[in-house]
Amino acid sequence: MVAKIIDGEHYAADLRDQLAVEIAELARQGIRPGLATVMAGEGYAARAYERRLRGLAGKLGCHYVCEALPENVTEADALAAVGKLDADPRVSGVLVLRPLPRQVSEVALYRLLDPVKDIEAVHPVNAGLLTLDRPRYIPSTPASAFHMLDRYLRESGRDPQEVYARSNMVLVGRSNNVGKPAVILGLNRNATVLSCDVHSFKAGLLYSHTAQADILIIAAGMPGLVTGEHVKPGVIAIDVGINPVEEPRTGKVRLVGDLDFATVAAKAEAISPVPGGVGPITDVWLLRNTVAAARAAAGLPGTEPEQRPHRLAG
Ligand SMILES: Nc1nc(=O)c2c([nH]1)NC[C@@H]1CN(c3ccc(C(=O)N[C@@H](CCC(=O)O)C(=O)O)cc3)C=[N+]21
Asked: Where does the Tetrahydrofolate dehydrogenase/cyclohydrolase NAD(P)-binding domain lie (predicted)?
């Protein structure tokens, strides 16, 4: 079987075009969405993402600011930086880039935010709304993974709801902004969801579960963690891994996923690549959440938590 490679760049371009139209409409009403990022320390992936967000916000005509904090920042200073952005009327949404230095609690930072500005949906109120399937926002990375799945299934002539309802969906990784919300999104789509993480790996359970997956979503942060021998023929594999690896010969750093692409692609029905898969959709989705936050701040309709079960658009 030669897997269909799901083209995240193409999906991202369509979402970007739709977003540009929405932003132009807001501009006519004198509303300019503003994105703020907070970065503490020097992680490669965080810097790569901050650069993409800065570039996309600029291209879309949004206000953008990045609060770059030193690795040894105190929690009090980090809280003050987030508090300043929370009070800034030009800022519609705030993203605190992970990883944070050990001495700064992510939950403390997010709890400080007005939930309307929490565009990563990790504030307790927003995480609760997502769990109840009444989301204000969906965290951009899991939203991008499911947008990709929904669109791929529809374009291959299937009803995503029907596929999910009869699928074993295995999630690998349990971070607050990716793995855990992805479990909730799978449950809210009636999939049979199983969540694995490093404890599953250490207990020798991981591969017995990945081998059962009809749909595998992996966000573990370990290059090549899952290979072709760990999946069943026909799996639909979504790789959310963003692992910087250095090329020994050139010393150049590039991002790779958590799947061993070649061997999984040899067995999968479809697979999303890294780069070029979930990644390019992620920054567009964060800007979508920022635009929704700008609409909410302006009191425009359609941005309060959903009154009915939510389905990803697009
Ligand atoms: N609170 C928080 N939320 C995040 O979502 C978050 C974060 N912190 N910290 C850092 C990581 C990293 N991250 C990336 C997302 C997309 C690409 C991306 O679009 N990559 C391109 C390739 C870029 C390249 O090769 O340099 C692609 O996959 O095609 C990269 C990195 C989000 N992160």
From this structure: 139-296
On the question of pLDDT at 197 being above 50, the answer is yes
Residues recorded for the chain = 314
Which residues sit with their C-beta closer than 6 Å to ligand 1? 45-46, 48-49, 52, 95-98, 120, 140-141, 177, 242, 255, 274-276, 279-280, 282-283
Contacts of 202 (CB under 8 A, 6+ apart): none
- Which of 5, 47, 52 has most ligand 1 atoms within 8 Å of its beta carbon, as the pocket-test mutant? 52
User: What is the predicted ipTM?
Assistant: 0.97
Domain boundaries, given as residue ranges, for the chain:
19-121+280-296, 140-279
Ligand-binding annotation for 234, yes or no, is no
CATH code 3.40.50.10860 for 19-121+280-296: yes
pLDDT tens figures, 204-228: 999 999 999 999 999 999 999 999 9
Sign, Cα dihedral of 52, 171, 147, 139? negative
- Bridge partners (DSSP) of residue 154 are none
Q: 140-279 is classed in which CATH architecture?
A: 3-Layer(aba) Sandwich (3.40)
What is the separation of C-alpha 163 from the centre of its chain, rounded to a whole number of angstroms? 22
Quote the pLDDT of residue 42: 77
Q: Is there a common fold for 19-121+280-296 and 140-279?
A: yes
